[in-house]
Design brief:
Elements (H helix, E strand, L loop, with lengths): L10 H18 L7 H22 L4 H27 L5 H27 L3 E6 L2 E6 L1
């Protein structure tokens, strides 16, 4: 796996950014925009995925990164569930649902794969200090 130097390079972050833009676009339209609870929750959940991936990447240890990725994974499930609500309430079309759901599911698979990779390479602990990255062998 190539070295990642910025969280913006993480594929799952890139995918969920695309998903977040879709969620915001959907939720601006009527009648979705008037369902304040769902609108707020789905937007916050999608942003949470992005934020947890970024925050985890910048954390001090690999174990913390894995924990944040786990939180991001749970938030992806939340977005997927809320997409069903949006579909059932006719806020989004079946095609829009499928597009967003596919991105969410692909994001989930990328996060799961990344967690597995990090767990398989747990012999090294990553500590970040600004622009410098140290690898500490146990």
């Amino acid at each position: 796996m190539p070295t990642i130097s910025r969280f913006e390079e993480i594929e799952s972050w890139q995918l969920v950014r695309e998903l977040t833009n879709l969620v915001y676009a959907f939720s601006r339209r009527e009648p979705f925009s008037r369902d304040f609870g769902l609108k707020d929750q789905i937007c916050r959940a999608s942003v949470s995925v992005m934020s947890n991936i970024a925050e985890g990447f910048e954390s001090q240890t690999q174990a913390q990164f894995i924990r944040y990725l786990g939180i991001a994974k749970a938030s992806v499930a939340e977005v997927r569930s809320q997409l069903y609500v949006a579909l059932d309430q006719n806020y989004i079309s079946k095609e829009e649902f499928q597009t967003a759901f596919d991105i969410a599911y692909k994001t989930l698979r990328k996060i799961v794969s990344f967690i597995a990779y990090l767990q398989a390479h747990s012999y090294a602990r990553r500590v970040s200090d600004g622009q410098v990255e140290y690898h500490i062998e146990h």
